[in-house]
Design a protein that fits this description.
By secondary structure, the protein is of the alpha/beta class. Helices cover 42% and strands 14% of the residues. The chain folds into 2 domains: 265 residues, Rossmann fold (3-Layer(aba) Sandwich), CATH 3.40.50.10260; 200 residues, Ribokinase (UDP-N-acetylmuramoyl-L-alanine:D-glutamate ligase, 3-Layer(aba) Sandwich). The strands form 2 sheets. Strands 1-10-18-17-16-15-14-13-11-12 form a 10-stranded mixed sheet, with helices on both faces. The site of ligand NPW has 29 residues, from helix 1, helix 2 and helix 4. One of its GO terms (molecular function) is metal ion binding.
Length: 594
């Protein structure tokens, strides 16, 4: 599990260490320099090699000389992906490849983030690189600047060289280090740093592949450290080298998409933040939907976490103990969604899938998945709404083949409104697509709403918030939490990075390739989640934080299955469902099916 620390938690962690004289900045700078040396050497070896075979040989040569650190995969970079932990002061220096004569440009701000960058720059100079520091502010970290100059680095003030000249300098460099601001920053980058970053970001877009490798120091300067917002210009990084602990903005959209691969340098922080345990315990005290919106940590599940959560059957299980999923999806106009949701549920390992809907759709579901029972009966979770049109209050008789009526009935049951319902009362549910427009009662967190940004905006507008799709995409964490507060349900907000917000911790999952953005992919996800909720139905109702964890697990499996089915190319939604069994098998065997 990846666990992000807020800027306050970072400060609390560093205080006693600094008081004890621990050389935090030296460790951070050393770790940063090692990553830069490794990446520059790697690129040089590839550049010289010229052919694909030669590039492979170049990598192999480097791997031999880099020792046990290993090289993170370059071919399948997913924005916002977090790679391994690295100890700054462990063992021999990392990058032993040839970096002599390579040119680095440092963007240096006034605080300790600039200090890290200058000390790292001194290491780079000592390894034979040509390093130019652009001081964006009248102030710079004194000791860092002195060390940088003493090593032979060149420093120039932005006020003297001006923005266009820095852009030219950057275009001729091998690597850029963005050390303008770190966790001490607040709000959008102010001038002159803001103007510089805007010009560099524009130049990066225009230059495409010719842009130098860009490393963000601790965070890409200008992102919202704690909320993942991007309030102003940010220079997109290929890699972020972050210190001590991950920050929420490195996991959360949209900021996570500016961070590239994230690499953690251990500077000696404790295993968890001081306030972590208290916050975790605090979660249980909240009643439905009354959670403090700022409470809860930002986490990202990894394959091992999902393996532990997955309701794998034991020898004593039979189909009823494993959980039946009731699917109310599709209409005669949109029958495909029913097939996709039912397939997602069956192929994730439901004990049974029941389909409720018009006969014409039920027949198609059966043709695709003969395992499905097209009849009502007891279920342990509901999947409601894929392929069902949104409710239009002005329309007297919507053409929904009776699906809205079935959904209203199921929703009354899952919220516990019907005490004597045939289903036996409250149970988990997935509420997707058209069913999102049919919410009448306050929801328990065991009901998971699965909107994309447009659907969430519509839901929020119905609750009195002035918000559109763009606004939701700009602040997904905020709006997902707001919707949780307003409805009581757990919110799974779909996107390139999917955010899950319920009572307690927030999950930010970045598991899927962009090819997943295809019609029907969300229907498959709803089915997968239905199976997970049915497999742990009682526990989900009793533990108000479990639905969010299971939702994040479903997103991981869905994303990995999409990656598997895509193999780097287009993917059809049904193929995502078909890839699920192998992905689950690998997860349960302890492998990472990336
Ligand atoms: N924590 C740790 O354990 C370790 C931390 N380390 C490092 O320290 C970093 C934190 O350093 P920090 O606290 O000095 O703040 P930092 O991020 O450099 O920026 C503050 C400066 O930026 C300015 N500024 C603020 N907002 C701005 C804006 N919107 N636009 C423009 N400028 C803005 C602000 O100016 P002011 O508002 O005061 O005028 C202030 O001068 C951390 O990210 C990591 O890299 C490592 O060395 C070791 C381990
Ligand atoms: N850029 C992207 N990268 C990766 N995954 C994405 C991206 N955009 C959307 N997705 C994922 O694709 C799926 C699309 O679901 P949805 O919008 O509900 O489509 P539909 O309703 O047609 O099934 C979601 O799982 C979402 O998280
Ligand atoms: K930075």
């Amino acid at each position: 599990m990846k666990d992000a620390w807020s800027s306050d938690e970072i400060r609390k962690a560093e205080e006693p260490l600094i008081a004890a004289g621990e050389p935090l900045m030296a460790r951070a700078a050393y770790g940063l320099a090692q990553v830069v040396l490794r990446e520059v050497a790697l690129r040089r070896a590839e550049g010289r090699a010229g052919t694909a075979d030669g590039a492979r040989q170049g990598r192999a040569r480097l791997r031999g000389s880099l020792g046990s650190d290993g090289l993170p995969g370059q071919a399948r970079v997913r924005p916002g992906r977090v790679v391994g932990r690295r100890t700054a002061d462990a063992g021999a220096p990392g990058g032993r490849g040839d970096v002599r004569g390579a040119h680095a440009v440092l963007l240096v701000g006034p605080g300790n983030n600039g200090g890290d960058t200058l000390f790292a720059g001194a290491h780079l100079v000592r390894r034979g690189m040509t390093v130019t520091a652009v001081l964006a502010s009248a102030r710079a970290h004194e000791a860092g600047l002195a060390a940088f100059r003493a090593a032979g680095g060149r420093a120039a003030s932005l006020a003297d060289v001006r923005v266009p000249a820095v852009v030219e300098l950057a275009l001729g460099a091998d690597v850029i280090l963005d050390g303008l601001v770190g966790v001490g920053a607040r709000g959008a980058l102010r001038p002159p740093a803001g103007g510089l970053v805007r010009a560099l970001a524009d130049a990066r877009d225009a230059a495409a592949d010719r842009w130098p490798y860009t490393v963000a120091v601790d965070i890409p300067s200008g992102i919202g450290v704690d909320d993942g917002a991007v309030p102003g210009p940010v220079l997109r990084a290929d890699r972020t080298v972050t210190f001590g602990a991950l920050k929420p903005g490195l996991l959360l959209p949209p900021a996570a998409q500016t961070a590239g691969e994230v690499e953690l340098v251990d500077v000696g922080f404790p295993a968890s933040p001081a306030s972590g345990a208290a916050r975790r315990n605090g979660v249980a005290r909240h009643a439905w939907g009354t959670t403090d919106p700022a409470a809860g940590r930002v986490l990202r599940l990894e394959p091992a976490d999902v393996a532990a959560l997955w309701p794998a059957p034991g020898a004593r299980d039979h189909k009823y103990t494993r959980g039946a999923v009731g699917v109310v999806a599709g209409t005669s106009t949109y029958p495909g969604a029913a097939v996709l949701a039912a397939s997602g549920a069956v192929l994730s390992g439901a004990g049974m899938v029941r389909y409720l809907g018009p006969e014409v759709v039920g027949t198609r579901v059966l043709l695709a998945r003969p395992e499905v029972v097209v009849a009502g009966g007891r279920v342990q979770s509901w999947v409601l709404g894929p392929g069902v049109p949104a409710l239009d209050p002005d329309d007297e008789g919507p053409d929904d083949d009776g699906q809205a009526r079935r959904i209203f009935g199921a929703l009354a049951a899952v919220t516990g409104v019907l005490s004597e319902d045939v289903t036996g009362g409250r149970m988990p549910a997935v509420v997707d697509a058209g069913a999102l427009t049919m919410l009448e009662h306050r929801l328990p967190p065991s009901v998971v709403l699965t909107p994309h940004a447009g659907e969430l905006a519509e839901l929020l507008r119905g609750l009195g918030h002035e918000v559109d799709r763009t606004a939701v995409e700009a602040r997904p964490l905020h709006w997902a939490r707001t919707a949780h507060q307003a409805t009581g349900g757990t919110i799974l907000l779909k996107g390139a990075v999917t955010v899950v917000a319920g009572p307690g911790d927030v999950y930010a999952q970045a598991d899927a390739p962009a090819w997943t953005a295809t019609a029907g992919a969300g229907d498959v996800l709803a089915g997968i989640l239905g199976t997970l909720l049915a497999g742990r139905s009682r526990a989900v109702v009793e533990d108000e934080t479990l639905a969010a964890r299971l939702a994040a697990a479903a997103v991981l499996v869905h994303g990995r299955a999409a990656a598997r089915a895509s193999a780097g190319g287009p993917v059809a939604a049904l193929e995502i469902a078909r890839a699920v069994p192998a992905v689950v098998a690998e997860l349960l065997a302890g492998a990472d099916p990336a």
